[in-house]
Amino acid sequence: MFASMKSTRGWSSPKLTAAVMAGTMLSGAIALLAPSVADAKTASNTFTFSGAHSGTLVLTPSSTNCSFGKTYNGKSYMVTLSHMKGSISGAGKGPWAMSAYVSKQGKNHVAKANVHSLTDTSFQSNGVPIIAFEETSGTVTDKGSTGSINITVEYHAVGSTTYSGSATVTGSWNCPNGLNLG
Asked: Which of 41, 70, 83, 148 has the greatest number of beta carbons closer than 10 A?
């Protein structure tokens, strides 16, 4: 019934939809939301690797899996996502963690990172050997408990001096109950 009203009248306002839903509930009728309305604010918490290494890592947000805020020196910001599950071809299965270090909150562009430094964005495994994917370029948008990445990374086995296997990583996080470090 509501779908036909929407298409014939041109009503598509979220406020109108909420008012119709409230009226429907008060009258005792049953209302079903379309999936696009019900899922509109759902975050993915998924990170997809493509290129020399491919796979997907999924974050289960909780207060122990997400931390964000200023770094210890107070001059930059960091986000740490831990206990991510999934696997990356040639690098093994989880758990994985992501650490993002950025100069400011908001959108940060990385033209060329120093892959030999852990002060950029990286993904690390909990396996033996520890595998890291270090950022070489891309964009990190840090809004504290939420954010996104679209970065290029290089494969590195910790303890080795070799960096290789470029991949692109895209994804986002939403940790409303994460630990805010200030």
From this structure: 148
Cα–Cα dist 40/127, whole Å = 36
Residue 168, SS3? strand
Provide the 3-class DSSP secondary structure of residue 151: strand
* H or E element, residue 109: strand 106-110
d(CA 145, CA 122): 18
Structure tokens at 139: 């964009």
pTM assigned to the model: 0.72
Residue 115 backbone phi and psi in degrees, to 5: -65, -10
Q: Any residues with CB less than 8 A from the CB of 63 and at least 6 apart, and which?
A: 177, 178, 179
DSSP structural state of residue 140: E
User: Hey, how many other C-beta atoms are within 10 angstroms of the C-beta on 95?
Assistant: 15
User: pLDDT tens for residues 71-120?
Assistant: 888 888 999 999 999 999 989 887 999 999 998 999 998 866 555 555 67
